[in-house]
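Form 7-S
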Amino acid sequence: MGSRCDEPGEQPEEVADHYRFECGEVEIDVFRVDGIGDKNEGAVDTALILHGKADQKTSMAGLGRRFARAGVQAVLVDLRGHGAS
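Output:
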């Protein structure tokens, strides 16, 4: 089960929640951004946003904001061995 993080750091201001999931030695760090705009009919409720090789979730914050403005919750993940994971 994940735990909520209240650690300061490179967290964009629009991040609603910051979680860390642990399983053994593996830790995965996650931001959640709430949808704030009007969602189009038929749009998904949540978008899972993964970064590329040698990157981290904070670089994907702009994409998370775009989904949020479209009314879609965005979940940004630091994959294992990247960023805070």
